[in-house]
Amino acid sequence: YNSISSGDNIKLQYGNIYTIKVTTEDNFGAADTELYTIKVINDLDMIPDINPNPIAASEDVTLSLRTNQYATCARAVIFGTNVDLDIKSESSTEKIWETKYGIPKTQKDNTYEVEFYATGEGLVELQENKDLIVKTPINLLAKMPSELTIDTPYIIGAKTTKYADEVTVNIFKGEAFEDTITLDSISFSEEKIWNKEYIVPVDVPKGDYFAEFIARTENGNIESVIVPIKTVSIKLENFRISEIRDYSWENYFIGDDGNLTELSRSGIQVSEMPVYKNKEGQGIKLGYKLYFKIDSMGLNDAGDIIEISPSFYALNDRGKPIEADIYVEDDNTGDYKLLKFSKYDEFTSKITLDTEDRFKSESEPANLSKNTWNFKYYIPPTAKIVEKSKALDLVNDNTKKYKLLVVFDILGRKNNGAEFNYTEKEIKWPSEEFQCSYGKNRPTTLNLTGYGYNHGEIFYYYLRETLIDDLKFNREW
């Protein structure tokens, strides 16, 4: 029993049965005790409601209470805070009490009991409870490449609901070189997009690892996702044309003073390929050599190589590329044979660069893990171009005579079998033709290599004139 005194107010919850013991004593010390049983009847017909429910922290809920016409006021207690309910509507038989309440953004996910009270005309306050579920979703989606190359920038990203306050990534989780990245966010109406650029350190060994994405809300909710990743310890970059030996291009690479030009030092970059013609409208005539450079990291051991696999596409007069085969003349017999069966095969149809082609890095000569590789390429001026898989027919002359596009598939291979496909991974291949530093490029806007639009498209040979024509002209001059 709880002791109460005369005049005290007591709070009774409807539906419960209470026993009240009343003890009286007269002036002579005689005492008498009586027990009274009271059943509290819901004479206010209370029906509480919370909407929406469940609700995320930081959102608003509507607390409402439906009573009969005898209720004179109503309130609610939520998270220990007393909130008055206002009449929203009433009729001759009922009243609806309501108010908006903002869930604190730090309120932890849990199930809470909200107390609703209504006072009748007899000043008796009745109580009814309703459960409120705070549930703050995160819906974390991680986004990052499955394969990472050392010393290469990548965008690591994620998507969450708007409630996430922080996303971190523990990359290379569990390793001695584990790193923690905090992503930056962009907010939209119902979600957040998270991004951060990350460069894989050069000392991370090749292997299989994990990245753990962790998203947190201000109310302490946490969600994590584990993503498997793989690192590649080699890299190719900065492929470029360092010289075109065609006389029409000489002044682009050698200045009037005999020194190298800026274009020769920087090279024609992949972003300006495939080379189509110079500012004077001259293409590269068949038979002239082109010189190339490419930089590497991690390909500095014996047995490390770079493989270049060319493919060829002849343009018809309307500019449509058709895959082509190349026939060259045999010096001994005078017969024509496919390029891959000729003496030119090893430096024209399948090129392997090894230690003889590898030099100190031009940009970082002191870094022994970095190198610059040099090689040259040309197709003989007497070559005949036909549609692929078609036999050469000199009698009826089925040769192509307009332009020949040379495409490179460039692959770095370490002596332990690790590979890096430059043609695939390079992201600077152009998306359209434009006026370049040397003149004009002409990408096909086709996926000829299977690695993406315009990937691997290097340069065009002009077939209507060749090196031999220049030699004849000079002799006649």
Molecular structure report:
With 477 residues, the chain is mainly beta. Helices cover 6% and strands 49% of the residues. It is built from five helices and 34 strands. It has helices spanning 250-253, 262-266, 345-348, 422-425, 467-476, and strands at residues 17-25, 31-39, 47-51, 60-68, 73-78, 81-90, 94-102, 110-119, 125-134, 141-143, 147-149, 153-161, 164-171, 179-182, 184-187, 191-199, 207-217, 222-232, 235-244, 268-269, 275-278, 284-286, 290-297, 305-315, 321-329, 336-338, 351-353, 358-360, 370-377, 384-387, 403-413, 419-421, 439-441, 457-466. Strands 22, 24, 25, 26, 27, 30, 31, 32 and 34 form a nine-stranded mixed beta sheet that branches. Strands 3-4-7-6-5-8-9 form a seven-stranded antiparallel beta sheet, with no helix packed on it. A five-stranded mixed beta sheet has the order 11-18-17-13-14, with no helix packed on it. A hairpin with a 5-residue loop joins β1 and β2 (31-39). The radius of gyration is 41 Å and the shape is elongated.
Give the proportion of residues in helices: under 10%
Strand runs, count: 34
Shape type: elongated
Extract low-pLDDT stretches: none
Alpha-beta content class = mainly beta
Helix run count:
5
* Biggest sheet features: 9 strands, mixed
Q: Any idea what the radius of gyration is?
A: 41 Å
